[in-house]
Amino acid sequence: MTDHFVILTLLILAHVVGDFYLQTSRSIKSKSSQGAKTSILANLRHAASHTLLALIVLLFTSSFEFTLIWASLVIGGTHFVIDLIKSHLPKCKGSLLCFSIDQLLHFIVILSVWAYLFGYFTFINIDTLRHATTFEFVSVALAYLLILKPTSILIQFVLRPWRLSSNADNNNQEADEPLDKAGSLIGVLERFIILTLILMNQFTAIGFVIAAKSILRFKDESKHEYVLLGTVTSLAIVLLIGLITQLLLTY
């Protein structure tokens, strides 16, 4: 029998193939159609492809059991329900949050089915969680949480005086809001990558991440200073948190 974790990887691979390579833009449009029949049929076809892919993986990697058929039907059936609900939520159209939640739910289902099939639920209990909650785990988790929302809020406070001055001069706050939101997201991704590199002792690679900011160009020259201030503040915070975390891990 194939290693259990290889089977989990293959199930996730099957999901990626079914969701991103076998699904056309036409089928996506049909799934969110206002016509109930068209929408249900499109979602059924899509869910059927996931059921078939999951069944192929399970039959290929395990000895035949009727449980595998039921497991595949659970993966396909829940995929149908999740996608049908998402397709008819107006605010979900083009939403990154909905897309992320959708994929997370699919992954949880696949992980749960896999854990049930191979008996991993029996290992999940309070004692297991207590042993897994080590000082190293808590330190790393805290570091990642600190460099996300708390750091973003701190950077906003640092940039606020400059921001207010800029708005008073240019009077185009609404026009700059999309840029600020995009910049905030870039900053979060940048800090996540830098912290990961610090914890991996790949300090040289951090220079390439910072260098990527040099390609930014603005018609308003004052924005260069705004972006530079935000970048330096963000970098200083993540370096401080990363180095402290690394020190704690080696203590």
Polypeptide structure, described:
- The protein has 251 residues and is mainly α.
- It has two domains: 4-124, no CATH class; 135-250, no CATH class.
- It has helices at 4-21, 25-31, 36-61, 66-87, 96-117, 126-132, 135-146, 149-170, 173-199, 203-211, 222-250.
- Helix 1 packs antiparallel against helix 5 (96-117).
- The model has no long low-confidence stretch (mean pLDDT 83).
In short:
Helices cover 80% and strands 0% of the residues.
Number of helices: 11
Give the helices and strands as they follow along the chain. Answer: HHHHHHHHHHH
Give the total of domains: 2
Q: What fraction, in percent, of the residue positions are helical? A: over 70%
Distance between the termini: 42 Å
Q: How much of the sequence is in beta strands? A: under 5%
Largest sheet: none
What structural class should be given to the helix and strand makeup? mainly alpha
Q: How many beta-strand runs? A: 0
Low-pLDDT segments, ≥5 res: none
Q: What does the average pLDDT come to?
A: 83
Radius of gyration using CA atoms only: 24 Å
Shape summary: globular
